[in-house]
Design brief:
The protein has eleven helices and two strands, in the order ααααββααααααα. With about 300 residues, the chain is mainly alpha-helical. The chain has one domain: ABC transporter involved in vitamin B12 uptake, BtuC (Orthogonal Bundle). It has a two-stranded antiparallel sheet. It is globular. The model has no long low-confidence stretch (mean pLDDT about 90). It comes from Ramlibacter lithotrophicus.
């Protein structure tokens, strides 16, 4: 029983940050029709920025609780700086072009940002320890878990609900959904599609950055951290269905629980477990578990 609880807790913790990152990836694809290879780099930028902001707050001898605010501000800063530079200065010139070309462009962005992070932060790992001990421990049965893990699960739920509410219950969200359905029709009705693209891309970067920022206390922030994240994130959105927000949630849960089960029962199959689940889903549902709504062709 204790092992089952441990598998569930570890799986939910892993799925929580993965859902936040994958949510940004699937949102960008749904709106801009871009399979963003550089999404993992935005996650890494969020983690590095959080390490810098939290370290600065500690050097200023601010209260440890401020480290949570510092991580949030780090994600906001990454989105505010990187989104205009990448969407306005680069991606906007490739909209409507061949999908393979867009993949190559985002792959080039990924390579550039990998080098940028090394130039700015160096090759040595960073550790963000302050936030991890703020929430104490949680006792379940005979096992003790770090309270921060449950905070991360709560953050994922809050982010998912906020994005859903923003898309389905606000005027701006309805405009975004209209662009997702048909950018041409939305433009003919007076919608500034370029502005919607910028908004969606900024939110996508923010979600990747906040995923990295709030995962930083749980990992060693070092070069190469973006590679594993983008691979697993793609597995999530492929399982759930590209462009589907519910699919991102279900896909993250499936991947998180599959990985946790493998780690506790057969550690050598950790990565294999994710890919075998993805292969099984694609065998029966090539479009993913939740197919994104397509515009009806006439």
């Amino acid at each position: 029983m204790n092992e089952l609880i441990t598998i569930l807790v570890d799986g939910l913790t892993y799925a929580s940050w993965l859902f936040i990152v994958s949510l940004g990836l699937t949102l960008v694809f749904g709106v801009l029709k871009i399979l963003n290879i550089a999404h993992g780099s935005f996650y890494a930028l969020g983690a590095y920025a959080a390490a810098s902001f939290v370290g600065w707050a500690a050097a200023m001898k601010w209260a440890p609780a401020f480290s949570i605010v510092a991580m949030l501000l780090a994600a906001v800063a990454v989105a505010a700086v990187v989104a205009p530079l990448t969407e306005r200065a680069l991606l906007r010139f490739f909209y409507g072009r061949d999908e393979v070309l867009l993949v190559l462009v985002t792959y080039a962005m990924f390579l550039i940002m990998e080098d940028v992070t090394k130039l700015v932060w160096g090759a040595n790992p960073y550790y963000v320890s302050e936030p991890y001990g703020l929430f104490g421990n949680v006792h379940l049965g005979q096992q003790t878990y770090v309270g921060y893990d449950f905070v991360l699960v709560g953050l994922a739920v809050a982010v998912g609900l906020l994005v859903w509410w923003g898309l389905n219950r606000t005027r701006q969200g309805k405009i975004v959904l209209a662009v997702i359905h048909s950018a041409e029709v939305a433009s003919s009705m007076g919608v500034n599609v370029s502005r919607v693209y910028m908004l969606a891309f900024s939110i996508g970067i923010f979600l990747a950055a906040i995923g990295g920022a709030f995962t930083a206390p749980m990992i060693s922030v070092q070069p190469g951290v973006s590679v594993g994240v983008i691979i697993v994130s793609f597995a999530v959105v492929i399982i759930g269905g590209l462009g589907s927000i519910p699919g991102a949630a279900v896909g993250a849960l499936i991947v998180g629980l599959a990985r946790s089960l493998a780690v506790h029962t057969a550690p050598v199959a950790e990565l294999f477990s994710i890919y075998i689940v993805m292969a099984i889903v694609l065998m029966f549902r090539p479009e993913g578990l939740f197919q994104r709504t397509q515009a009806r062709k006439i």
